[in-house]
Amino acid sequence: MKSAPWWLSGPAALLFTGLLLVPLALTAVLSFNVYDPATGARAGEFTLAHYAMVFGDPYYHGIFWRTFRISALVALICVLVGAPEAYVLSRMRNPWRSAMLLVVLAPLLVSVVVRAFGWSMLLGPEGLVNAALGALGLGPFKLLYTETAVVIALVHVMLPFMVIPVWTSLQKLDPGIADAALSLNASPFTTLRRIVLPQVMPGILSGSLIVFGLAASSFAVPGLLGGRRLKMVATVVYDEYLHELNWPLGAAVALTLLAANLAVMLGWNRLVEGRYRRALG
Amino acid sequence: MNRNGPLALAFHALVIAFMLAPLVVVCLVAFTPENTLTLPTTSFSLRWFRAVFEHPDFMQSFWNSLWLALGSATLATLLAVPAGLAITRYRFAGREFLNGLFLSPLIIPHLVLGVALLRLFALVGGSGSFGFLVFAHALIVTPYTLRLVVAALVGFDRSAEQAAASLGAGHFTVFRRITLPMILPGVTGGWMLAFINSFDEVTMSIFVTAPSTVTLPVRMYMYATESIDPLMAAVSALMVGVTALAMVLLDRVYGLDRVLVGRR
Q: Is residue A28 exposed (0-12), middle (13-18) or buried (19+ Cβ within 10 Å)?
C-alpha cells in the first residue's frame, strides 16, 4: 500500500494545485506583463515597469507605509489589551471563565462586514461615541473616515487572535511557580513580570505576528471605515483591478504585499526562535 | 488561585463592552421605525426586516451564500478527511509539503487569493460562475476542516481498527464502521466551521463573483459603500442571528471552546 497516501491526498492536492499554485504563478507572470490602457495586459510582452512604480512612486510608498504603520499600531494595542485580558480571564472561575472567553472570542465568527458596519454607526457624526463625548462636554470629533476609526475597528476584529495564543500559553503555566514566588515574598507585580510574563511571551509574539499579517491585508475595514481617500494596500489593489482595470499593476501590488508579509513572518519567526534558543540554553 | 482585583474586573468589563458594542448596536438599530440609522427609543418596528425579505438582490445573495457555504463546506470535508488520513497515518515523501500546502490559505492573504483566482477564471472563461465559486471557497475553508480532522486522528486509539481488521473487515469497512464514527465529532465540527467561514468570506469573493452570483457579505459591502440606511442594519442583524444559531449547533456537536481555543 505504498500508493495509499497519494490517492488519499490526491484530490485535495489537485484542488490546491489548480486553484492555488497555478493561479499564483499566473499572477506572478501577469505582474510583469506590459499594460495597454486600450486592450489590457499584453501576453508575451514583459516589463519591470509595474514593480518600478510600486517601489519608486511616492504614492505607493505612502500606501505601504500607512498600511504597515496601522498594522503595527493595531498589533501593539492588541498586545496591550489582549494579553492582560487573557490573564484576567484565566484567573476567573468557571462558569464565568468559559462564558466570558466565548464572549471575547465569538465575534470572530461574525462577518467582518457586519462588525465594520457596526463601528461605522458607533463612530459616525451622530453616533453613540460622539453622543457620549458630547454629554461630557467634548467634541464632536470627526472619527469616521479617519485612521482612528480604521485602527479601532481593526483592533476589534484582531483582538481574539491575540487572546487565543496568550490564553493557550497561560493554560500550560504551572500555578505552583507563581505561588512559590509569592511565598518567597515577591510582590504580585514582580511575580507577574518575572514569572508569568516570560512564560507567555511566545504566545504574545505569535499573536502579534498573526494580528500584523491579517491587519496588513485587511480589506473590508479600511474599505468601509477609511472612506475613499484613506487607502490601504488591499483597497488600492481592489481599485486597480475593478476601477482602473490595470490588472498587471494590481498584481504587482498584491504580490509585493504577499512577499512583504512572508518576509516579516519569517524574519520575526527567526528572531523569536533565536532568542528563545539562547534563553533556553 | 488568586482572585481578580476590582481594577482587573473593571478592565475586563471595558473589554467586553468594546467587543459587544458594534454587534449590539447593529441589532438594536435594525428595529428602528425611522428612515435613518437611529436607536429605537419609544417603539420597535419590524419594517426593515420586512424590507430585507422583499429586497430581491439581498434575497438572491442570501440563497447564493447559503448554497455556496453548503457546497464548499461539504466539498472541503470530502477532501480533508482522506487528506487528514494520509497526513496522520503515513510517512511519505512530500508529506510535510502537502501539509503546508493544505494549511497555506490561512497565511496567504485572501486578497492575493482573490486576485490570483480572478486571473485563472478570466483565462479559462466562465468567470464568476457558481461552480468555480464552490471550488474557490472549498480552497479557503479546507484548512479549518483539515485541522479538526487531524486533531481527531492524532491520539486516536487504533486497537478497535486492528480488531476489526483481524476479524476480516476490509479497509473500507474498517473506515466506515470504526474510523469514521470515532472521528465524527471532528468531521462535523470541521464542516460547520467551514460553513461559517465560507458564509462570512468577503475579501476573496469580491474579486471572483459575477452579478448573478454575488454573495451576501459582498452585497452588503457594496451596499454599505453607496448608501447607509437601516436596511443594512436589518441584514446585519440577520447575519448575527444566523451566525449565533450556527455557533449554538457547533457548540453542541463539537464544543465551541475547542474550536476557538483548540483545547482537546
A: middle
- Find chain A residues with C-beta within 8 A of B231's C-beta: none
Structurally, chain B folds into a number of domains equal to 1
- Closest by CA to A236, choosing from A75, A91, A103, A67, is A67
Residue B111: how many CB atoms within 10 A of its CB?
A: 26
Interface contact B261-A167, CB threshold 8 A: yes
pLDDT on residue A79: 96
State yes or no: pLDDT of B91 exceeds 80: yes
Q: 0.80 exceeded by the pTM? A: yes
Report the complex ipTM.
0.89
CA of B108 to nearest chain A CA: how many angstroms apart? Answer: 7
> How many CB contacts within 8 angstroms connect chain A with chain B?
254
Print the domain residue range for B140.
Answer: 56-261
Would B47 be classed as within a structural domain?
no
Cα separation, B211 vs B192, whole angstroms: 27
C-alpha grid cell, residue B157: 486509539
Cβ-based contacts of A235 with chain B (< 8 Å): none
Give the residue carrying C-alpha cell 461574525: A110
- What's the CATH code of the domain at B257? 1.10.3720.10
Residues 239 to 258 of B: which have CB under 8 A from any A CB? 239-240, 243, 246-247, 256-257
B155-168 pLDDT, tens digit per residue, is 778 888 889 989 98
> How far is residue B239's CA from residue B250's CA, in Å, rounded to a whole number?
16
- CB-based contact (8 Å) between A265 and chain B? yes
Rounded to whole angstroms, the Cα distance separating A249 from B139 reads 25
Domains of chain A, start order: 54-279 (1.10.3720.10)
B178 touches A: beta carbon within 8 Å: no
Q: How far is B155 from chain A, CA to nearest CA, in Å?
A: 19
| Rounded Cα gap, residues B37 and B230, in angstroms | 5
Pick the residue from chain B with its C-alpha nearest to A23: B116
Could you tell me which of A79, A72, A76, A159 has the C-alpha nearest to residue A115?
A159
